[in-house]
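Lecture 7, part B: from sequences to assemblies.

Below are the input chains for today's worked example.
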Amino acid sequence: MTKTTTNHYMPSRRAVLAGLAASPIALAAGRAFAQPTSGTLSIAVLDWAETGIKPVFAAYEAARPGVKIDYSLLPGDYQGIRQTLLSRRLANKLPDITYLADILATQLANAEVTADMRPFLTSGGPIGMTSLAKPFLDQYLVTSGPNKDGIFGLPIGADTVVLYYNKKHFDDAGIPYPTDDWTFEKQIEVATQLTQKNGNTTTRYGLAASVPWHATYVPGIEAFGDTLLDENNMYKLQSEAAIKVFTMYWDQVKAGVIASTPQQTQLGGGFQAFGAGTVSMLQSVRALTPLIRSVTTDDWDAALVPTINGVRKTGMGSIAQSITTTGMANNQELAFDYLNWFYSEDGGMKILTASYGTVPPVEALYNSPIWTDLPGPPYDNRVFAESIQYGAMNPTSIPADVQAVVDTELTKAEEAVVLNNMPVADALKAAETVINEAMTRVLASGG
Amino acid sequence: MSKTDTAEARVAATPRIAPRRKNNGRTDSPFWAALFVGPNVVLFTLFMIVPILWGLGLSVFDWNLIGEPRFVGLQNYTDILKDARALNSVWKTVYLVFLGVVPTVVLSFLIAVLINTTFPGYTVFRTMYLLPIVISLVASAVLWRFIYDPRVGPIAQLLSVFGISGPNWLQDTTWAMPALSLVIVWLRLPLGVILYLAALQQINPQLLEAAEIDGAGPWAKLRHVIWPNVMPVTLLVLVLTLRGIIFDSFDIAFVMTRGGPLNSTDILAVYIYDLAFAQLRLGYASALSTVLFVIVTILALIFNPPRRRPTNGDPV
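Predicted structure of the full complex, as structure tokens:
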């Protein structure tokens, strides 16, 4: 395994011609799925996933002597991923396989960075169309435009938002741990009890929840029986449900009980604050569990997120991997083999889940001991799998360019409400205007 | 006899020698000039001129890195006038310049004057002032974010000793920009101090001695001898600080506040980044960059207009 810091992998002209010439033969022989005995596979992974994925690469190389993996890093945020991949496409230096985020599925497909994964899923290999968890696979199903009905990513984990809690804080306050029947009101009542202040300054927050994050507000809006977008794909932040959801969270941010996004940033990030004991409860995802484990000294566990309006909904999503157009053209056999091995219970999944950062996106492995029997914390791994049925997804029809505006405008709305006491409805109206202007502009230019 | 007369007389007295080789070893051969200047010209063209021209060209297109660029003429420029966030960003940039330039120049000068002396351990003292220049901008931003922390930051701790509950510096629309500007001044000081130190050490000591003999005190010497002698450097520091604050403040603003709260620190560099890399509106971002470039160029020309190099009659 080698790490490329500045990607220099460029298939030679001879390799490309050889690959093209051999492709009909490979296709004809594809059903046999002979393991490749040599070759190099280039993979771009997210920077924060590097530690967890390196043992996977090493195990694959051990399982396929003669095969080498040349990996490079992508930034961890979706804007950075997009910028890097588009630049590499322009430079004709795409890797064979790349990580991506759900919000980028359509845009990267339209940009011819990622290839349609249906040929892989229908190739007759161990991993087929029904192998991967549908809600997570659907995030990468393109629903409009030139690539409509294509699948442009395979989920790497089945991530849902759960409630992490500091057991010591609960014990010290004599409060019972969260249970499955918790409501939002009960959560806020306990969070208020756990909050500590010095004058007007909160020194310990009861809860850290990023309100302008879609995994927080989308489930809330759905719990109140509404949707985020109207039939024309426009945001409806003026709906009664949206105003209720943002109000109930932002009231607690104003009260100093919930740490807002900027406050979490100031604390070094939500998981760092949880680890340092500066917040007692944290709404976050399995992917961050390795980091939470590494920074938290107090004992802790995870629970289901509470119900809102009597309904349990939780944010869901997953990063994914996809063969690129370059990889599909030049290194398809090796890429297929790697992905089939990656999702197998005794292959990549076993190693990846051992790092605590992944719930397998394979339904057959939801209760597999490869990850549920890992020693705690977290002790209650049931919640990660059980949450999946309550998942509420950010609409996949939102273009990534618009999501950037949404994130900025909702953060600004939060600041207007918290710092300037602007009424929630007014702040949301201002945000909605800018967001829908951006939506109109982006949709008019082809999305 | 005037100074010019003296120079002319000196030139006249200079023996005419072969122009091929002078006393200091210089030659008129263009080969050597090209050899030494060439690499810089190539690199400057490649990494400065070409990107500037490229950006200028891009500013009349609508492009998102994915589809084909679409020619839109001057629409991106006219859109700026209708963009409230762009106008706010221009204002915030001007505000940051106001808060940053004057303190940087004044403090650089005063610190340079104070440390332009020798005493035991003075090199350590000078090094301390120059430290910020070797710390990465992002590391500085993270460090200062901790310093401004309203719960455990040193400023909050210090104020609490006096029973004062300070604001949440970076989450307060009034204080966020002054808090940022303090960091930027701290970062820009070393360069100013270095330049002023060099200028101070060029002042003829006889001038200061003459002033002392004439009865000038420390303030009078500072005002009437030192300050006028370092005026060219002041202009240089002014222009470099101005350019630095406008172009190099992105890291600090992005890491510390991301333009918030409520766009109170949303300087042009942050907005341009957001447009180009979050919204992929590369044409519009380029138009805004071009406007920023023009503003900085005009300000630089105002503060430091180009002038003929004084030759004092010396045949350069």
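Note for the exam: The domain at 77-303 of chain B is CATH 1.10.3720.10 (MetI-like fold). Keep this in mind when comparing with the next example.
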